[in-house]
Q: What sequence folds into this?
């Protein structure tokens, strides 16, 4: 039974991810049109600030601050959790960067050469997937896996950053949805690799 359970979890994740990705591509134009038709100066200013401070360097800084505080307080568990969050964030960010360069999808703000243009280094054609969304989803997704009671309160940050990337015309809906799936996958893999060591060590201490 223990071997079957992970298979069902993967099947459910794949099914939900496939539905979410398909729906996001279908509603790309509708969401982009809504953003264009509902401009708001205050909202755009706010969203730009969210985007500015929602990239991977800020997440790494927060993660290392968490590690420093945990180390100072003598909590090996939270030191490992903090390092796992940073590592998942970094892997998701690098993976997203590689895919966006290879795909060359034009950002919504680009008026010419729309769509997929092949390998390009120019930021104007680095729309798919959203690096911000991948990094923040991996970062806070790891926290959710490590401690859902704490992580659940930080999920709105990931949603806000993803929304901000669409509102400032940097990404399409499908860019952020696919990035979120990538972030969740990175968070799960890295957590599966590093976090069990915490529980195993805790069990040995209790026994």
A:
């Amino acid at each position: 039974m223990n071997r079957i359970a992970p298979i069902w979890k993967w099947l459910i994740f794949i099914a939900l991810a496939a539905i979410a990705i398909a729906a996001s591509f279908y509603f790309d134009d509708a969401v982009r049109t809504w953003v264009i038709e509902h401009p708001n100066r205050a909202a755009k200013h706010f969203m730009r600030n969210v985007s500015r401070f929602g990239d991977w360097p800020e997440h790494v800084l927060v993660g290392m601050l968490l590690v420093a505080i945990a180390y100072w307080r003598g909590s090996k568990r939270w030191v490992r959790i903090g390092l796992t969050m940073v590592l998942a964030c970094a892997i998701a960010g690098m993976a997203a960067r590689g895919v966006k360069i290879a795909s060359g999808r034009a950002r919504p703000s680009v008026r010419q050469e729309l769509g997929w243009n092949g390998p390009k280094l120019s930021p104007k054609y680095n729309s798919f997937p959203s690096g911000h969304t991948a990094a923040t989803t991996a970062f806070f997704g790891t926290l959710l896996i490590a401690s859902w009671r704490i992580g659940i309160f930080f999920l709105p940050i990931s949603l806000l950053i993803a929304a901000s990337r669409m509102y400032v015309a940097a990404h399409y809906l499908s860019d952020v949805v696919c990035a979120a799936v990538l972030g969740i996958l990175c968070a799960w893999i890295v957590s599966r690799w590093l976090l069990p060591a915490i529980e195993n060590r805790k069990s040995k201490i209790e026994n």
